[in-house]
Amino acid sequence: MATIVFCSVNKMAQTAARRCLFSHLKGLASSGESRLPLSCTHSPSVTFLAGIRCFSRGYSVRFMSHGTAGRAATGRTRRGALALIGAAAVTASAAVAGFLANANHFQRAEMATKVSKAAEENEQEGDILERCRGFMSPPVTDIGVLQERKGEMRTRMEMLIMETQAAFCNALEEVDGGKFKVDRWQRNEGGGGISCVMQDGKVFEKAGVNVSVVFGNLTEEAARQMRSRGKVLKGKDGKLPFCAMGVSSVIHPKNPHIPTVHFNYRYFEIEEEDGTKQWWFGGGTDLTPVYINKEDAFHFHNTLKEACDKHHLQYYPDFKKWCDRYFYIRHRGETRGIGGIFFDDLDSPSQKEAFNFVQSCARTVVPCYLPIVYKHLNDSFTDENKGWQQVRRGRYVEFNLVYDRGVKFGLATPGSRIESILMSLPLTARWEYMHEPAKGTMEAEMLEVLRNPKEWV
After folding, report:
1. In a domain, 20, yes or no
2. How far is CA 333 from the centre of its chain?
């Protein structure tokens, strides 16, 4: 089953179900509770999204999903289902609750982005080992070390990126039916990563979700890149100890009506000559459709806006503009896609508040993208549609290899894993000489949007 289905229920039952689910979802966010079922009354059996159902059983409700409880037959997946933690629990719950509240293709991201004080305290106090059970792989850093320093930002961020990777991979496996290849790698100079890649699936031609945690000393080239961004770096004996970690993903679907999506959230720390540390966060999420769909664009941007608005009302407009500027292919005079949000060097108002903002953004990656995937899952397409997709992928490759800051940093860092850095490239792409779509076509409409970015919310 690959379409979004809504059932008709009477208004009273609908209201009761909505009130019940939102009440319990708020309980999840505030208590950190990660177990199912949720208790509820008077709610009929409703199908919200392919593979996600809410079943009423007397005084209890069970959420069933092939990506969580419905796939409880195997070790890692079962543990992930029975111990939905942090991002996975809030994100999955938000996706379901939203479909109750709004009979449309898309849900609001409110619960996916809400981080209460109680949830933060639970995250810090929660058992590291228990939280790791739902990951795609053990963390890069030894679990014992994470336990010892679980209050430090480096630990909190590593747990967040691991949870984000697991939540997104589980959601993609659910819709595709395939499995990610989980590839752990080590960096001789310090650290390593976990690359999760699925190729030639039913839905995704190439899907990659990477986590990396690396440390050591910055090279002069990498330091120059930092200084070009206004960083004042004072090393000792020419050395600049650093630690960098993040989660990044690029998804290239087969169907040209399903957009490519990219997200990246990262944390950087540098120790200076006197022992003081500079730190900052960066990241963002952006959408690259082959054909423009205004409803998709609104849903995607609105989900990100709601996450930003919970922290600062100026974040979304500022970071949306930054995204349009950053993902710009200067030699083509067009943006890579329809944008989203992008920010870098975020070191205010405080480390805790900056982390909470990044956490909210990371928890939107499933609800801002998966409804769009399900919506277009069975859309028909022609050879001409595929040809245009290949041309647009060529533009994607051009940006990543010529302009992308993360690719440049990775290639300039000794011991970087080239396979993981270039994971963002599609399996196939096309370059046609002097290609220009005919006026009045959907392809021409897409190109107009890329040459003149729009406000979608």
Report:
1. no
2. 27
